[in-house]
Amino acid sequence: MPLPAFDRRRLFAATGGLGAASLLAACSDDADPVQTQPDGKPFSFLDERSGEDVKLPLVPTNVVAFTGLAAALYDYGVEVAAVFGPTTLSDGQPDLQAGRLPVEELTVLGNAWGEFDVEQYAALGPELLVSHYYEGFDLWFVPEDRLEEIESLAPGIGIEVSKPTIDQIIDRHAALAEALGADLNSEENAAAVERFGNAAGSVAAAVAEKPLKVLAVGAWPDGLYIANPPTFNVLAKSTELGVDLVVPDNPDQNNYWELLSWENVDKYDADVIFLDTRTGNLTAEQLLAEQPTWAALPAVEAGQVYGWNAEPVYSHVGGAIELERIAEGLTSGQAL
């Protein structure tokens, strides 16, 4: 999901993501993943960039992945050889996109946009490279000027995350995990699927009990970004479940955000505000201290500001966590 101007504007357009400051600058679940057991069969999986299957004679065991995708695989029981993309914060704590990955144990080829240690990657002897795919970009977080060189070392697979529904995207990640040896019928994975369904049910139940007007935003120094729900899969899912989300009047040309100056942040009424918590966004504490117009919003004065993640970990556990956060905010909030 994109961020402001990469020029940040182009990057924002791809990802919808204000939290992507981690691209420009350098929910936890303690359960261990189910361990996978590749069975020696041939491997085949669709690369959604080209629409063609990537085929290998055996299931690869030396896989390198974009951090967010690796986090989803980990939830299903697949561990990768190395990751690239936002993995740790400056204090060593996991980035939001790392999900439940044991970041202290990971080989990280690059932690920020433009970072990818090709020499270290080659030394790993990779068999497969997997990443997300946004329209207008190639493999997410793989430097375009070295893509050909990188893909000459191992075939790449891109999973489309900008257009499909969150259910479809999660299913694709689960399918990749299964192709790499995960047992989707394990007790842990079955419980994760049930948890996702229950989380969706909790959102629907909260809406039925107490309809509220909801605003999803990201906050940067240049202003407040109003999220356009149809272009963010977790928000689109929430709308499907009945959440009354504000739809901005004038989203940008890529249809992700409407930017409001700090003088005009009261343009839209809302009972509850969900604030993007990805790395790079201003925090609720920073906003209260630095932006009086934000502090004066009714939802802020009422303490009805909650977090959301525009780039969830696309596993059943990851999706459940995001829907649970939304359900919690709706349950706690009151009409104003």
UniProtKB/TrEMBL annotation:
Primary location group: other
Entry keywords, A to Z: Signal, Transport
Compartment list: Cell envelope
Xref: Pfam families: Peripla_BP_2
Record SUPFAM superfamilies: Helical backbone' metal receptor (SSF53807)
Alphabetical list of InterPro entries matching this protein: ABC_transptr_periplasmic_BD (IPR002491), Bact_iron-sidero_bind (IPR051313)
GO terms classed as biological process: iron coordination entity transport
Protein name as catalogued: ABC transporter substrate-binding protein
Organism: Glycomyces artemisiae
Lineage: Bacteria, Bacillati, Actinomycetota, Actinomycetes, Glycomycetales
